[in-house]
TrEMBL record:
GO terms for molecular function: FMN binding; oxidoreductase activity. GO terms for cellular component: cytosol. The lineage of its organism: Bacteria, Bacillati, Bacillota, Bacilli, Lactobacillales. This is NADPH-dependent FMN reductase. Transmembrane segments: none annotated. It comes from the Bacteria.
């Protein structure tokens, strides 16, 4: 069975992005094995840390290498990719062999996609991911699901995906599975 690693872009417990990802997990039920990356301890990138790679970064790399595809669930922060998500992708895109800085990374040729949940700024962030993922040498599946947070979620903490969003996630899931060699 194909293995898809979810990266939830909000580290808050029970975040709307976490709930969004759970809807996508349902779309993959019986089709792929889903796991979630624990990346809360990944430090801010610094070349000074690369020689003795932090354990949290090594664990993230290993999880990425074990997966057939990576699916990011991204919030929008100030009409941009959240800095924490970009930092994680920076670490994951670095060469595994420091003697060849142009060599393969954990993300090299990995199937990737993104879904975006925000109440504005979807298009600039989608464009940023469309530029970033191919640049860091992934096989980007440009079947992006975007949606906004339902108004009631701000009061009760529960993200509710519409039927249209669920259909889009199912379509995105099928596109990701088709892209896996």
């Amino acid at each position: 069975m194909k293995k898809i690693l979810f990266i939830v872009g909000s580290l808050r417990q029970g975040s709307f992005d976490q709930q969004f990802a759970q809807n996508a997990e349902k779309a993959l039920e019986g089709k792929a094995e889903v796991s979630y990356l624990d990346w809360a301890q990944v430090p801010v990138f610094s070349q000074d840390l690369e020689a003795d790679i932090p354990a949290s970064v090594q664990a993230a790399r290993e999880a990425v290498l074990a997966a057939d595809a990576i699916w990011v669930f991204s919030p929008v922060y100030n009409f941009a990719i959240p800095g924490s998500v970009k930092n994680l992708l920076d670490w994951l895109s670095r060469a595994l062999d420091l003697s060849d800085t142009t060599g393969a990374s954990a993300l090299n040729d990995k199937v990737t996609t993104v879904s975006i949940l925000a109440n504005g700024g979807h298009e600039p962030v989608a464009e940023a991911y469309r530029t970033l993922f191919p640049f860091i040498r992934t096989k980007f599946v440009d079947e992006i699901t975007t949606t906004r947070v339902n108004d009631s979620a701000w009061a009760d903490g529960k993200f509710i995906a519409t039927d249209e969003v669920i259909a889009n996630l199912e379509k995105q899931a099928d596109a990701v599975l088709a892209a896996i060699d």
